[in-house]
Amino acid sequence: MAANANVNVTLRMDKNLKQRLQELLSNLGLDMTTYFTMSARQAVREQCIPFKVTMEVPNAETRKAMKDTIEGKGLSKEYSSFEEMMRDIDAED
């Protein structure tokens, strides 16, 4: 077998997912073979999965807090004096 011989790889995926992926790749000027080859090369080169694999999906409250932080909303509260700040802190307890 030659050093750079190609082999066939078969995989199964949801039909809808495949169609959506093909549409995306087509818009990017790629086909499925090129995409999977690129992903495989990057995984081998970096010795890791070439994207973040996580189960962490922020809930609606966390997404809102992240958006507010990015937009600078609700990051701090202004006080006219130290005493006013301490009264507010004590009221929260």
List keywords for this structure.
55% helix, 0% strand, 93 residues, mainly alpha
Describe this entry's structure for a reader.
The chain is an all-alpha fold. It has one domain. It contains four helices and no strands. The termini are far apart. The mean pLDDT is 88.
Chart the SSEs and their pairings.
Blueprint: H1 15-27, H2 32-46, H3 60-71, H4 82-92
Give a concise summary.
By secondary structure, the chain is mainly alpha-helical. Helix content is 55%, strand content 0%.
Work out the helicity level: 40-55%
- Measured distance between first and last alpha carbons: 74 Å
- The residue ranges in which pLDDT falls below 50 over 5 or more consecutive positions are none
Q: What do the pLDDT scores average to? A: 88
Radius of gyration: 25 Å
Number of domains: 1
Biggest β-sheet description: none
Shape: elongated
Strand content: under 5%
Provide a count of the helices: 4
Q: From N to C, what is the helix and strand string?
A: HHHH
